[in-house]
Prior knowledge:
Strand order of the largest sheet of chain A: 2-3-5-1-4
Low-confidence stretches of chain B: 1-6
Order of helices and strands of chain B: HHHHHHHH
Structural class of chain B: mainly alpha
Shape of chain B: globular
Number of domains of chain A: 4
Helix content of chain B: 55-70%
Distance between the termini of chain A: 119 Å
CATH topology of the largest domain in chain B: Rna Polymerase Sigma Factor, Chain: A
CATH superfamily of the largest domain in chain B: RNA polymerase sigma factor, region 2, helix turn helix motif
Low-confidence stretches of chain A: 124-129, 131-158, 185-270
Order of helices and strands of chain A: HHHHHHHHHHHHHHEHEEHEE
CATH class of the largest domain in chain B: Mainly Alpha
Number of strands of chain B: 0
Oligomer: heterodimer
Radius of gyration of chain A: 45 Å
Mean pLDDT of chain A: 67
Distance between the termini of chain B: 33 Å
Largest sheet of chain A: 5 strands, mixed
Amino acid sequence: MTCDDVRDRLSDRIDGALDPAAEAEVTSHLAACAACQRELAGLERTVTGLRALGDVHAPAGFVDRVLARARPEPWTHRLLRAVFLPLPRKLPLEAAAVVLVGILTVLLYRGVPDVERVGDQFAVREPAAPPVAAPVSPPAPSTPEAPPAKEDRPRAAPSPKTRLAERSADRPRVTEEKRASFERAAPESPPPPLPAPAVGQETDTGLPAELGKQKAPARGRPESAPPLMERTAPPDVLQRASRPDEAKETTVLKSRGQMRAAAPGAMTATLTPPLRGVLRVGDRTASERAMRDLFGRLGVTATWDRPEPSVLTISAPKGVLAELLDGLRELGELRMEPTAGEVPDRVTLVLRLAS
Amino acid sequence: MSEGPGDLEHLVDGLRRGDDAAFEALVRMAQHRIFGIAMRMLGDRAEAEEVAQEVFLRVHRAAREFRGDSKLSTWLYAIASRLCLARLVRPERRARIVDPESVPEIPDAGADPSARLETAELRTALERCIQELDEERRIVVVLRDVHGLPYEEIAAALGIELGTVRSRLHRARAELKDRLEKRLS
């Protein structure tokens, strides 16, 4: 057995792990080899030192810390940890959730109270409605938003208590009427998106027409004019209004919100993509005058876009569309954009005047 | 600590039942042993405590599934060894020198101050030499020579062959002897 063979077995010899034959050979070699004896002595000293090192004591409180971590955490702590930690990840998510809830709240506020506010207006303003509106406002299903007959209503200003009761009584009826209007107006398929407002046109806030009118009353219309009738009656009723001087005047509305509140037909029209066209005319002033006459004759409603007077929005019944287009062609060169789909009962035509 | 590896085995039934008292007894009995292994493997008290706590928490979580194929002490050593080795191979971890302050006082080396000084010097040198060993050799020599585990239990804890344990132990001791002689010469 060589020195290398013996030294490979010294570790096992220290542990007593050699078999008797190998043990005898190693012992015999060591007796005659001083170098291997020194090697064995160095190893034994090292191993003795290692065995004397002992354990390193765990820090004070180690057991308590382990037991605390092993103990089931109360559900409140787990919930708090799940909600708030880790902060760098959850804080932005929670902030985004708060913003989202805020946006949804605003959207709901702008959408749902619209119906209730309409009911409020009816309840408050009914006593002040003009008497001429009653005979020409039939309670027909075609005018679901028109207020019911008002003759039986008290003329004197109601007390706050009475007004509150009237509001409570009117709200469900108005809501149901409005829902019925939507059901009649809406096609079986989902309605297409609303057309984008023209540049400079007042943004559709979703508020009822009353608020829009309070902000900016219709141009050229006296303050004493019966606003409620105009807002709720369909165009044909407007034509037969008690103001003959204004019967043929095109109704000027300020925003889509007002258009929507004006008549159920108009609301249907706003839900349908409008027809678009360009009318090239020679004499602008004469053409506008002729157009007003044409609109009055056909009983259509037109909105002049005030910031951009060359654009007007026409709302016309389906039955007079062909006659309307023929009349416009007589005034100048009319070019209509191609459209697809069925023509609704009430058509919206966005017309740009060009010279 | 004075308890041998076999002393833990009577706790197995309690641990399987989820008995908190059995778990507390296990932690109290094995805390220094497990912390000592982690301390000598990692060379950092905070890191060693973290690993030692994790060892006991894993035992607590998995005690119900402990089948008893090996001894409870072997299971503890296996978890501790693997956690230490896994932490040592982390790329961000740098080799650290063991803090001599963390090593317990050597048992009375006699009244002779020079003998005591020599023992303390040998002990500090040994701790530093252990830290300089390759991890695979270090865990074997720590389990065998510092904690006195038999070859079979080391092989079971580390999941290696008995012959591998012997050869690694032999090389570790030889390397330690050489390093120690250089330090003390």
